Fold CbbBc protein.
Amino acid sequence: MDTLNKKARIVPYHHPAAGWGALKAVAVNLIKEKVAGGNYRTLLRQNQPDGFDCPGCAWPDRQHASTFEFCENGVKAVAAEATTKRVTPEFFARHTVAELMAQSDYELEQHGRLTDPMVYDAASDRYVPIAWEGAFELIARHLKGLEDPGQAAFYTSGRTGNEAAFLYQLMVRMYGTNNFPDCSNMCHEATSRGLPGTVGIGKGTVTLDDFEHADTLLIFGQNPATNHPRMMGELRECARRGAAIVSINPLRERGLERFADPQSPLEMLTMSGTRIATTFVQPRVGGDFALIKGVAKRVLELDDAARAAGAERVLDMDFILAHTAGFEAFAADLRAQAWAPLERESGLSREAIENLAAIYVAGKRVIATWGMGLTQHKNSVAAIQMLSNLMMMRGNIGREGAGLCPVRGHSNVQGNRTVGIEDKPTPAFLDRLGRVFDFDPPRAHGYDVVETIEAMEDGRVKVLIGLGGNFAMATPDTPRTWEALRRCALSVHITTKLNRSHLVHGREALILPTLGRTEIDIRGGVAQGVTVEDSMSMVHVSYGMNKPASPNLMSETAIVARMAHATLGSAKVDWLYYADDYASIRDAIEAVCEGFENYNRRIAQPGGFHLRVASREREWKTTSGKANFIVARIETDTPINWARQRHGDDVMVLMTTRSHDQYNTTIYALDDRYRGVFGQRRVLFINPADLARMGLRAGERVDIFTVWDDEVERRADGFLLVEYDIPPGCLGAYYPETNPLVPLDSVGDVSNTPTSKSIPVILRRSRVAATGAA
Ligand SMILES: Nc1nc2c(c(=O)[nH]1)N[C@H]1C(S)=C(S)[C@@H](COP(=O)(O)OP(=O)(O)OC[C@H]3O[C@@H](n4cnc5c(=O)[nH]c(N)nc54)[C@H](O)[C@@H]3O)O[C@H]1N2
Ligand SMILES: Nc1nc2c(c(=O)[nH]1)N[C@H]1C(S)=C(S)[C@@H](COP(=O)(O)OP(=O)(O)OC[C@H]3O[C@@H](n4cnc5c(=O)[nH]c(N)nc54)[C@H](O)[C@@H]3O)O[C@H]1N2
Ligand SMILES: [Mo]
């Protein structure tokens, strides 16, 4: 526990983001992981045309990437994969699963790379070795034994390359289900569900080049210095050009204040850095919808005033008339909208909202970016659609230097969706898939993450197969989810590293160790590359260059192909042929998915190619054939408001977020440098006024309880109170340790995403002794 950690301390950070801090952390990481020798090459070739795609995040690369185009967190991801530590059969022989359960996620990660396929042995409560063939037979026996294919669910985390993902969805659909829970269900689902209704496609409309032309950037709910460090380089260039950069975030994220480019000797030597955000707007947690609607209302007011004065219109009427539908109803709704609820729900004064509107209308080329701060709430789909409305009012979509820019997480999460990892596939996609592979794909929608957990709970799903990820830790309502996982007849995880999902397992369980993206993947005597699609729809190829962590690893693509061969046979699809020639899988993707013409040829070019996004070219694939303005009202009937009605103002809203030294459920180390947290993770950011109001002090520990409408007690204990620049009534803490607080049925409208950024909670002073770490 944190209290035992002598190094735990809270020290506000005053330096620019990146800069020395980042380089030092890089060096420490390299030494710690003992990869300094041969693997420097790995780091230098990362994100190079002939190198491999960084498994760190989905931010795109410049084609002219220098050898320094890797960032601290990319280095961490690569170093973590290149560790020399191994989790061998001997390791498993030494530890029962119960013993491993007692270790922290950080400790589990530190054991290193998995080396051999393992099967759970209930008699000894240990994982024991199994031959690959035996593992595939076990999977096939279970899958063939189910009464209904819908009793199996197939999870995907977003690191998997297009080739493995495509084969996986083909196998699963031939098997007979669309049960594809994926990390996206917990991530950018609100984007993927929200944007099609407004602009016709659930992807962003900008490319990196647009950042060179933008004069205004609105950054909603993102912490890029930690989660997308390469985005900082882009923001730095925008800032130096004089662009207005606004961070819209309840937390004033230090990492967005100043940034020193590791490639700029001057900035590094003077520790100066470039000022990044010109304005910080701090709505309360979950207040973005009301804020954006308020800004839209103000834009309309400004347009009215301009018209009255005979001045230039504020609205882009050419765009609105030529390209959109529903503007009249939208404008009428904005006019009818009173200011008071907008102020109350956003937590911002009318003046603050008007100020943001003034910045927005001053911009001729505006890019709006967003991350998890916008997507993990009850009203996230509405908020994203309102943002799209706002951008459409001034024609900021489909124009150079302007557009919508959802910033995705996992390096290939967007590609996975493109090639068919989707629990709600379109009929058009299924038609093409069925035609190319001569079968009748299942049409009924499958289960997403939350539905899969509910189905495991009541026995409708009996087999869970995970292609990457850490299902047990990434998902909400931890004790309930774990119970559901333990009811499965079989759980299978195709992973690189030991994690909690291996330990919270079904009656039978397999760990299938796989190659990471950094590793050489030889199949059929040839080094194979995998392709990925970044957050801006650039598709490129990635070749590993490190020696595999163990001779007994298999690539994800080969594992999927062998699973399919064992389960379905190869009469219809020659799975094993595909496993040995990824180019032929790309040919199949080209035949099924739109926009992949000449796939193999186009990935051979440096930087790959841009997968066409129709909305970027102002082609609207909506039912109206236009970009739709969408009317949405402020919802006051929310879990937070119910909880406050019942429990008064003691109810606070908790957001769960990432620290600097973690990658989702992987905890690399215990620091969150830019937020000034060191050596610990059980911290709770709180406004000083709330501390005073509740008679609490920074440095004390509290237990957090969820306020929900069922009888279940949801709690997380022993969090250190840390004073922070966060609006009153709002709290911030790290995930995944706060996932026990997220009720499984607290989900976003339409997206069904767990509302992990807006949990109604109350605090009680812990009985655990306080430390002096304040
Ligand atoms: N180093 C590192 N890189 C990563 C990851 C990682 O864990 N570590 N994860 C990857 C993945 S899968 C993803 S999805 C991305 C996530 O990257 P981000 O989208 O940056 O995700 P978070 O850190 O969860 O939260 C982002 C921000 O949302 C703000 N926020 C919380 N609630 C609200 C709100 O109501 N409104 C607004 N406007 N803001 C709010 C928080 O203060 C925080 O600054 O990063 C990817 N990259
Ligand atoms: N409370 C709360 N919960 C959240 C979030 C939040 O902000 N708050 N964020 C959500 C988001 S945005 C996401 S994306 C999910 C993340 O959910 P996941 O994607 O399921 O989780 P990760 O932690 O990224 O998965 C890490 C594991 O992936 C395996 N792995 C790593 N690299 C590879 C590889 O190349 N191939 C394979 N096959 N396996 C590999 C390793 O074994 C590692 O232990 O969590 C979600 N959960
Ligand atoms: Mo994510």
